[in-house]
């Protein structure tokens, strides 16, 4: 016997829904808007330029975070200063860089170098301690007037400071006649591990830039699903 269409007259006929699926095998929520598909694709040049810029941000962030690895390691170092005693009794072979130390000695005013930072405008002095030429002291000029003979701070080498102190090192060696080299030690006075919290914040910011850029790349540059046949 023939089947009678039970659809009331005047009602629009559409696909039969069964268990959330549209007849034809695809889910109703998975259908692609034909108007969206009809939109022109973004110019390939702009996509490439955007992707290149985002890749440069990722590379720059990783490079900056890598350059701060020693500062970050010092931030997590112990906050208790290691007392090295008199500088004249120190064996340079036993010194460990990137640590918080305390050393006693008399500044050599005749071989003091003064310089000023362009960004902050603050003046600093660098000088060796009497009785040796291996350990130098770096401190703000305002503190140098106090006449202190005990100095606590971060122990590094001129080489680890890179370009920041290269000019000072060269002036000490060439103009002052001191044996300042890349292996010479420098005590950065009043720079304790907690004072390097900025390094942690900057590294976290770099990581955030990398994560955000990667998420945007995955969202913006993933291919659109194919239109249904």
Q: Which tags fit this structure?
A:
229 residues; 34% helix; two-stranded antiparallel sheet; seven-stranded mixed β-sheet; disordered N terminus; alpha+beta; single chain
Q: Layout of helices and strands, plus pairs?
A:
Blueprint: E1 17-18, E2 21-22, H1 34-38, H2 44-67, H3 69-75, E3 82-86, E4 99-104, E5 113-116, E6 123-128, E7 135-140, H4 141-144, E8 150-157, H5 158-161, H6 166-174, E9 185-189, H7 197-220
What do these coordinates show?
It is built from 7 helices and 9 strands. The protein is α+β, with helices and mostly antiparallel strands and 229 residues long. The strands form 2 sheets. It has a 7-stranded mixed β-sheet. Strands 1-2 form a two-stranded antiparallel ribbon. A hairpin with a 6-residue loop joins strand 5 (113-116) and strand 6. The chain is elongated and about 85 Å long. Residues 1-12 and 15-26 have low confidence and may be disordered.
Mean pLDDT: 82
| Range of strand content | 15-25%
- Helices and strands: which structural class? alpha+beta
Tally of alpha and pi helices: 7
Quaternary structure annotation: single chain
Described by strand count, sense and barrel closure, the largest sheet is: 7 strands, mixed
Q: Tell me, what's the shape?
A: elongated
- What order do the strands of the largest sheet run in, or round the barrel if closed? 3-4-8-9-7-6-5
How large is the radius of gyration? 33 Å
């Amino acid at each position: 016997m023939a089947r009678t269409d039970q659809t009331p007259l005047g009602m629009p006929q559409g696909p039969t829904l069964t268990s959330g699926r549209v007849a034809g095998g695809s889910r109703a929520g998975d259908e692609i808007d034909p108007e969206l598909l009809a939109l022109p694709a973004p110019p390939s040049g702009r996509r490439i330029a955007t992707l290149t810029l985002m890749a440069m941000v990722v590379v720059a962030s990783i490079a900056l975070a890598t350059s701060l690895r020693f500062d970050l390691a010092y931030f997590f170092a112990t906050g208790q200063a290691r007392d090295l005693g008199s500088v004249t009794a120190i064996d340079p072979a036993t010194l460990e860089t990137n640590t918080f130390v305390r050393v006693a000695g008399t500044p050599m005013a005749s071989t003091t170098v003064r310089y000023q930072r362009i960004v902050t405008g603050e003046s600093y002095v660098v000088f060796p301690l009497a009785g040796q030429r291996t350990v130098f002291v770096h401190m703000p000029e305002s503190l140098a007037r106090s006449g202190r003979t005990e100095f606590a701070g971060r122990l590094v080498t001129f080489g680890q400071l890179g370009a920041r102190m290269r000019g000072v090192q060269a002036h000490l060696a060439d103009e002052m006649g001191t044996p300042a080299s890349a292996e010479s030690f420098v005590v950065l006075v009043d720079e304790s591990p907690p004072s390097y919290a900025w390094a942690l914040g900057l590294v976290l910011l770099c990581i955030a830039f990398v994560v955000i850029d990667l998420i945007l790349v995955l969202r913006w540059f993933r291919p659109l699903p194919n239109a249904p046949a």
